[in-house]
Amino acid sequence: MYSYNDRVSYSRIDKDGLLGVSNVVDAMQDCCLFHSEDVGRSVIALREKSRAWLVSSWHIVLKRRPKMGEKFVVHTWPYRFKGIFGCRNFLMETPDKEVLAFADSQWFYFDSSTGRPAKIDKEEIEAYPVSPAYHMEYSPRKVQFPEDLVLREKIAVCQNYLDTNHHVNNGQYIRLAVNVLPVDYEVSELRAEFRLAAKMGDTLYIYSGEENGFYYVVFTDQEKTPYFACEFTGRNGGAS
Predict the structure, then answer these.
(1) Are 43 and 164 in contact (CB under 8 A)?
(2) Whole-angstrom distance, CA of residue 73 vs CA of residue 119
(3) Strands in the chain per DSSP E
(4) Is 19 helix (H, G, I), strand (E, B) or coil?
(5) Could you report the per-residue pLDDT of 163-177, keeping only the tens digit for each?
(6) Which of 33, 158, 167, 187 has the maximal Cβ count within 10 Å?
(7) Which helix (H) or strand (E) holds 178?
């Protein structure tokens, strides 16, 4: 298990003074990347050999979002490697061990020289000893969404949405998705699936709607081919 300590800063809180939903995802992603840095498998080192880890899905359960100034700890560990895929859990808790959030995620190893997934290197697997999977409900990684969603807006992909892979970073998708949730919708759980990497100059068509107690946000291209799909579960059935 790899861990790092953090504290809720003003730049990451929402209007209620709580760590933003997308900032929870950012904190987990940061923990993963710090882990890579500290075992010598950094993003930059991988890029030098035309490799990268790209996320394909998140399943995050939010028990309580920490408030402004509150200290918290993020833990992460891989629990399975198979073929091109790696699966990794996350746990966010207070210094007193109160669970704030936990998550499952699936990543795939990518060859940027070919633009295709690649079998995981032996050295990469050896750098990350696996631990047992976290005790949680493991839902399907594919997000099934209704077809009658409503177009909310169109957004052109600009430079500040990109990461070192020159794709829209997964945290940016979730940040944009949260922006179209109903006002005061309190998220208790989210499942996100990343289907197609959006790049500079692409346009994201953002659709959303509610069905069977879930709120869906889907980003597509002009032909409605999905880039990203997210299923939100509201606390107490929706808005607070």
Answers:
(1) yes
(2) 32
(3) 2-7, 51-62, 71-82, 85-93, 99-111, 116-117, 150-156, 185-194, 203-211, 214-220, 226-239
(4) strand
(5) 888 889 889 999 999
(6) 167
(7) helix 170-179
